[in-house]
Amino acid sequence: MYTEDFKDMGVFMSRENSVDMLSGPITGKILIFVVPVILSGVLQLLFNAADIVVFFGGGGRK
Q1: How far apart, in whole angstroms, are the C-alpha atoms of residue 12 and residue 21?
Q2: Which residues make Cβ contacts (< 8 Å) with residue 56, sequence separation at least 6?
Q3: Fewer Cβ atoms within 10 Å of its own Cβ: the N or the C terminal residue of the chain?
Q4: How far apart are CA 26 and CA 20, in angstroms?
């Protein structure tokens, strides 16, 4: 497939949503990249903790 075919399918991001990581100060760009990764990790930990509470904690037979 050619690049034009991918553009027609909407595969490439537009310039408004992209971040140039190769030029300029790096600190803010790293934070923009890392914060969603950290938040998704915290969310995954919370879901796992809820699963453990449901499985081992409440609602069991006595």
Answers
A1: 17
A2: none
A3: C
A4: 10
